[in-house]
Amino acid sequence: MNLNNYWKTSFIACLLLASIQTYAQTTAWAYFTDKCSNETDYFKADVCLDYVQLLKQHNIEVLGQSKWLNAACIHASDRAKAESLACVARTEVLGKYHVAQEQTNEDFSYGQGDRQIELMGLDLYHQKGYTGKGVKLALFDAGFYKVDSLPIFDSLWANNQIIASRDFVTNDTLTWRESTHGMQVLALAGINYPDSMVGAAPGALFVLARTEDAPTEKHIEELNWLRAMEWADSIGVDIIHSSLGYSEFDSLEGDYTYFDMDGKSTLITIAAENAAARGIFVTNSAGNSGNKPWYYITAPCDGKNVLCVGAVDSFGTIAGFSSRGPSADGRIKPDLCGMGSKNTVPNGEGILMRGSGTSFSGPLVAGLVA
Known about the structure:
Structural class: alpha/beta
Helix content: 25-40%
Radius of gyration: 24 Å
């Protein structure tokens, strides 16, 4: 199930819980075994009317129904009659719900990276067991230097959390010899290095793609991003995050202008919008041009369905370098901010240091989504 469907189901369950408390002891859900439909999207397919009619034929009053839950609401006194029917998988009294992963036995020690986690309340989510477990988070970057060998990433390898990797610059196997930038992004997103640093989603599964050739800035890197997106989609990722942005390029490449930041004019933004249309949640760093002549966000942050992440300091004040909005067509951008000033990140030898940029606020927010 992709994230869009997950959140829809969670949302409707919350609405139901809020509106049916007075019926909790007198009504129940009768969950059907299947749907009588050829519709490929489970959430669009209606409840099987034949099953509903069958309930009525057995003098079971149907109070309502839900196609998302694939169930009919009935009187609790009719549960036994409903359960006797082959089309009913089970019944449950309304209000009898529980939240999976309500608590966890893991005790995270955030060390030097505590503030960047606590500023967004991620420590409270972790305490309740929301660590991104089972969520596939893809990171597109310029390289993941020594992720295969630095002790700070041992937990990811020990728990088989890095499930795929690919170099789209060389169109070959990822070698772990390129830029430290992606390595730092991964650390912020998901490491668990006790008493030193813990990422935003230490339980997530990670898909790593090198799409950026760090010494250059060429339009071919947008194509790399697109190909990585298609590859990540084939793996079934839930979230794509990139701490990359495109506006000005090398000589003779041809720059974008601010007017191209309209959500529909650049290749990388169109690719990001296509990913979102396929149910993938896309987050992207806003850029670090707030105190430079460019000033504005960069592609693909201008996408209508791309969560654009700016940067604040540890006090919640907007960082001067954080790229500003709005998009060229007048939409509010960035969409939100995370801590991106004087963050705790590892250097090339795995030693913790301080670093700043929306590249560092972005993975924290992506981890929060997970």
